[in-house]
Automatic annotation (TrEMBL):
CDD domains attached to this UniProt entry: INPP5A
Name by which UniProt lists this protein: inositol-polyphosphate 5-phosphatase
Gene3D superfamilies: Endonuclease/exonuclease/phosphatase
Organism this protein belongs to: Hippocampus comes
Pfam families (UniProt xref): Exo_endo_phos2
InterPro entries: Endo/exonu/phosph_ase_sf, INPP5A, IPPc
PANTHER family membership: INOSITOL-POLYPHOSPHATE 5-PHOSPHATASE (PTHR12997:SF10), TYPE I INOSITOL-1,4,5-TRISPHOSPHATE 5-PHOSPHATASE (PTHR12997)
Ranges of residues in domain Inositol polyphosphate-related phosphatase: 9-401
A GO biological process held by the record: phosphatidylinositol dephosphorylation
Length: 413
């Protein structure tokens, strides 16, 4: 890493969220590309404190991918690009045999050698401990005192079928402030046909309930309230009914049903003229739209009006302006860096959100344009089906002092 890092101008923070499931399906190609782009982002922003929240660690077949997970973690901890990060904490939920606990979440934290006096909260002892050395924890995270980990209650799961959805929370104290970092994975849309039925969709309601659960947990009375950042794969989707009605406003819809059950099998939207050209074909796991450019032009921001799931939490969660294309579902073909898969309507699933008090910490010094950036990683190359998303910012000296009366830990010595 070029240049000497100091904290004189404040503490540089880099938060990254990445659903890495694809990496373990093709470790030779995808993993190398992913790491290269990740290291370039780190070297570009030179954070003092780096947090990487991963979901779907190990991919779809965790048992078969365990060795790939180990090599991925080893590479991150020992690479030349990360050698100035003298302290690290890695938390991997690897207990895939436990249905009621397994989340496949991985939380990685790296601390630069120039950052002095950083502490991590012990949730059992209710006190901070100095962070020294590098540690990896992958056994039962439920009993690890330096974090809180929960899988959502089973009645939150659609059709009460277990899947790997939950959250991990850690708490950190810098010399000037403290904050919670929450790694989250919410429920996906199981069927495009069901998502299209009403606005908002039934899946949107399930995600809303789960996110509300997390926010209530991290702000309850058990611990001092502190600023918090929640970042991960929220699986937020565009309002399917509204976006399809817009994309196919001049088309006519044909409904195809199965012969045995008479259930809707597919919807075909055709232009009224132009030889009845198919505009969109919609099936349970197919979203084949005639013109993918609409999701890429101007970074797809014309579709942000249909990105509504966060609005329910507008008083509790904030986000910087989105200026990058939908983060999912990209092609997993290593030669198709910008192509979306025809499985789902592209959406901004991967996000970095924050509380009001955390937003106060993310202030942009007027003389430093690049000090605040919310963007994706690997825009032009294949990073798997999700593009990682990052937030880079600088906490200026004394930034947390104004919160000291509200948050005692902001003046930790």
């Amino acid at each position: 890493m070029a240049g000497k890092l100091t904290t004189a101008q404040g503490t540089g923070i880099l938060l990254v969220t990445a659903n890495v499931g694809s990496l373990f399906e093709d470790p030779e190609n995808l993993q190398k590309t992913w790491l290269r782009e990740f290291y370039q982002t780190v070297q570009s922003h030179k954070p003092h404190f780096l947090a990487v929240h991963c979901q779907e660690v190990g991919g779809k077949n965790y048992a078969a991918s365990m060795s790939h997970v180990d090599s991925f973690v080893k590479e991150l901890l020992s690479s030349d690009a990360m050698k100035e990060y003298s302290r690290a904490r890695v938390y991997l939920d690897e207990n895939y045999k436990s249905q009621e606990h397994f989340t496949a979440l991985g939380s990685f934290y790296f601390i630069h050698e120039s950052l002095k006096n950083i502490q991590q909260f012990d949730f059992k002892a209710k006190k901070y401990r100095k962070v020294v050395g590098k540690e990896t924890c992958s056994e039962t995270l439920e009993s690890t005192p330096s974090l809180e980990k929960e899988k959502f209650p089973q009645d939150y799961f659609p059709e009460c079928k277990w899947s790997r959805k939950g959250f991990i929370r850690t708490r950190w104290a810098l010399p000037d402030c403290c904050f919670d970092l929450v790694n989250i994975h919410l429920f996906h849309d199981a069927s495009n046909l069901v998502a299209w039925e009403k606005s908002p969709s039934v899946y949107s309601g399930t995600r809303q309930k789960a996110l509300g659960y997390v926010l209530d947990r991290i702000t309850d009375q058990r611990f001092e309230r502190v600023p918090y950042f929640v970042f991960g794969d929220f699986n937020f989707r565009l309002d399917s009914k509204q976006v399809i009605e817009t994309l196919c406003s001049t088309a006519t819809m044909q409904t195809v049903r199965t012969t045995d059950t008479n259930e809707v099998d597919k919807l075909i939207f055709r232009e009224s003229d132009n030889d009845r050209k198919v505009v969109l074909q919609l099936e349970k796991k197919l979203f084949s739209y005639v013109n993918q450019d609409v999701f890429r032009e101007n970074n797809g921001t014309s579709l942000l009006e249909y990105d509504k799931e966060l609005s329910v939490f507008k008083d509790r969660l904030h986000e910087l302006e989105i200026s990058f294309p939908p983060s999912y579902p990209y092609s997993e073909d290593s030669s198709q860096g910008k192509q979306y898969m025809n499985t789902r309507c592209p959406a901004w699933c991967d996000r970095i959100l924050m509380s009001s008090s955390a937003r106060d910490l993310v202030s942009k010094p007027e003389n430093e344009e690049k000090s605040l950036l919310y963007d994706n990683i690997g825009a032009n190359v294949c990073m798997g089906d999700h593009k990682p998303v990052f937030l880079s910012f600088r906490i200026t000296a004394g930034a947390g002092k104004r919160n000291a009366n509200k948050h005692k830990c902001c003046v930790v010595q």
